[in-house]
Give the backbone structure.
Amino acid sequence: MNDDLADASWFKSSRSANASECVEIAFVDDHVGVRDSKDAGGPALVFSGEQWDRFLSSGVWQR
């Protein structure tokens, strides 16, 4: 899956605002990639769509 992320269209998380510590998100097929915006060539976490939905609905990201 990481090879599929090489050409992904990444965007900054709306929660990052203008902060220097940001995450970027990319939707690829039925997966979601998450990476550190300061290390665009570095590793990315990849979640299934179902896992991503559970994460968002958990509210843990709002803490």
Observations:
- The radius of gyration is 12 Å.
